[in-house]
Design a protein that fits this description.
Helix content is about 75%, strand content about 0%. The protein is built from nine helices and no strands.
């Protein structure tokens, strides 16, 4: 009877929400948390390496196939596109924290569009443009995965636990 009274009057602990990829490991920040964070960084590095090899091949093809001013202009355009891609990714990430698109809206038609154009010169040009424009996202993901918190969800969870602890000053772990 006494233990039921104590449980009802004294909180057990702060609510620890499950986060994507991290589960509840973010609260204790033990070995499991750091292994998951390292896995995310390695995955992002793999994606970045694939994009980097493809973009490097595009730059190499431009540099070896053209001569003179045309080479300088195209390399400048490609470099500008990569820089613009990084800037656009950063801006979009800032907006992303305010609004999240449904998964069906973000990935719905991508596969159908690429497979419909497969094997055509248009598909090759499309993939070159996508690689140059899309390299910003893996770069941003790499930077974001190495920060203190893995994303807005972890920041919100940490703030929620801090608010709970402020409301329950007598609670001891």
């Amino acid at each position: 009877m006494r233990s039921e009274y104590i449980r009802s009057t004294h909180p057990v602990g702060p609510p620890v929400p499950k986060l994507p990829l991290l589960g509840t490991t973010w609260y204790r920040r033990g070995v499991g948390y750091w292994l998951r964070r390292a896995g995310v960084v390695l995955f992002v590095l793999l994606i970045l390496a694939i994009f980097g090899l493809y973009v490097g091949a595009v730059f190499d093809a431009i540099a070896t196939s053209l001569h003179g001013a045309a080479r300088v202009v195209l390399l400048g355009l490609a470099t500008g596109t990569v820089i613009a891609s990084v800037i656009a990714a950063v801006r979009q990430q800032r907006r992303y924290t305010a609004w999240r698109a449904p998964r069906s809206a973000t990935a719905g038609g991508l596969g159908a569009g690429v497979s419909a154009r497969g094997g055509s010169p248009l598909a090759g040009a499309f993939l070159i443009v996508v690689a140059l424009v899309g390299i910003g996202w893996p770069l941003l993901w790499l930077v974001m995965s190495c920060r203190r918190y893995s994303g807005p969800a972890e920041v919100a969870a940490v703030q929620g636990v801090a608010q709970w602890k402020a409301q329950h000053p007598d609670w001891r772990p």
